[in-house]
Amino acid sequence: MNAVTATVTNVEAVRATLHDAMAADDDVVIIGEDVGARGNVFLITRGFLEEFGPQRVIDAPLAEASIVGVAIGMAMQGMRPIAEIQFADFIYPAFSQIVGEAAKTRYRSNGDYTCPLVIRTPYGGGVRGALSHSVSIEALFYHVPGITILAPSTPRDIKGLLTSAIASDDPVLFLEHKKTYRSVRGEVPAGHFTIPFGKADIKKSGTRLTVVSYGYNVHQALDAAQRLEDENVSVEVIDLRSIRPMDKTTILESVRKTRKLLIIHEDNKFGGIGAEISAMVAEEALFDLDAPIRRLCGPDVPAMGYALPLEEAFMISTERMQDAMRELAFF
Amino acid sequence: MAKTDTARTVSLDRGGLRDEQLVAMLRNMLMQRQLDNRGFQLNRQGKIPFALGSEGHEGLQAGAAMAFVRGSDVLVPYYRDLGLVLGVGITPVELLANMFARESDLSAGRQFPNHYTARARGVASVSSIIAAHCTHAAGMAYALKYRNETGRVVLCTTGEGATSQGEWHEAVNFSAVHALPIVWLCENNGFAISTPQSMQMAIEDVADKAPGYGMPGMICDGTDPVATYRTMKVAMDRARGGGGPTLVEAKCYRFLSHSTDDDDRTYRDRAVIEEQRKDDPVPKFERVLVDAGILDAAAVAALRADVLRETNEATDAAEAMPQVHADTMYDNVYAGSYEPWLA
Question: Does a structural domain hold residue B333?
Fold first, then answer.
């Protein structure tokens, strides 16, 4: 790992990592809606068409099932495609391809065929995206063996995990929270840099309670935890980064130290990632806990509304996080 | 057993095929039918849980396989392609190991009968989800073109019901946009389980869909291996030469129920099937080769006996193979550990 670092936004980290991968390996191609001349709706691939050509930067027909399905075929033939779903909300037509095909390619052929495929997609709300540009999709896929799901929150983690994802011989669903694209900045190591799957990151150490989160919520949780320092409440904040596989060791070590667990995610509560973490901690560390496990999650309504009050009520505010942390700390 | 003297040949359209190739096609057809029947017999004997027949598709599959170049082309089949996979190099004993779900099955006992994988022989692994494999075929063809592997072609097959799927449309459209080296072969037997073609689409010929994508559509008599070969040769050669995709519709008839779990008496009149039997591709092609003087009756009988012998031997061999070990269940979930929780 090179000591020289650069400070970039999340969206710049995605762009730079994709660029490095495209430059390093001709088998890496990008296929998605508007990734060519437009350079992706967030300008992530701007200039790629000119640099790498239309055979490697493919403006797909407007059809998500085949964006993923065609990429699976390329992967089965030994290429390393990166399929882009323009917004996570549009991934549903590709559900059969991801769950029924990509996740099972290696398994159903007993390793004769593999599926080295990355599916990138921006997810999450708080950007006035309304019903169909705000959704969190991780819980719909994390039940499925055969796929890896990553949701990094910082430029450094994006670079490390996206590089690992492209090198992986199995399908990876790579989730990028839209609200962090330009609002989060951070340092990125120069040169080749990878982070293994299934390793959480303790973004802040603390002693009174453990917060487990991922994506945009991590940054809010860090703000809330910082404010609680003034009240002498020391909060440990764990960024999962990898949702499947998940880092049991880091969670359990932290919970056994703080004896209290708060799980925060923007996705709705029922059947969400927090449910699995709660069950795991209850199975492994129930008698190490000093308080019930708490979950602070999005509401169980079908979607995020467009009107500002509806969106604000759906998103978890930093203040609500602070209150939940304080309440659990003093339980 | 093939006669070298073809002087007696009268009015045989041989499609440029030599005698031994014509006889090889007949043997493939006889083997497909024998293995089909064997699957149904083994199911009725309680020896295998499920079988799925391709009876009625023998002619088109022998013809299509003859246009496939082993060691170069890639087949992305569907589940009613027993003769086609035989024709591109999957062996009878492998097909029976698949039926018996034995340890040595190509998928190690994971896949249903009639689902294969043989990457080294250019046979793709597919699921049972109708038309889900079509987009994969397009992606594989894209990879061949991208890597300038000129001359290699992807052959992707479906029934006519699959052409109702959105993913079939997406795949065929993508292949036309990128002028990919691929042939879409629709084996139109008129039924999707019980649903007749008239309830799938408002057109007579699936091939009529092709112009809407900007590619040629061709129709052939799928009960005739030579006619299918001729058509497929044109389409495959067009793809080989960089001319892009073709949709080929081979018209045939499905003589058996959809599978051993289906009973077609609930939706098909026996008289219609009997009428269709007059056009049964297997005895029809036997007659063609006899009439042309390529085989005599004794040679046909010997060929049938040889196919039955091979089928019996393959059945016994597959049945005697070891069962799959349950602890292999965790193999090949991922390249590494399957555990969702990392300790």
Answer: no
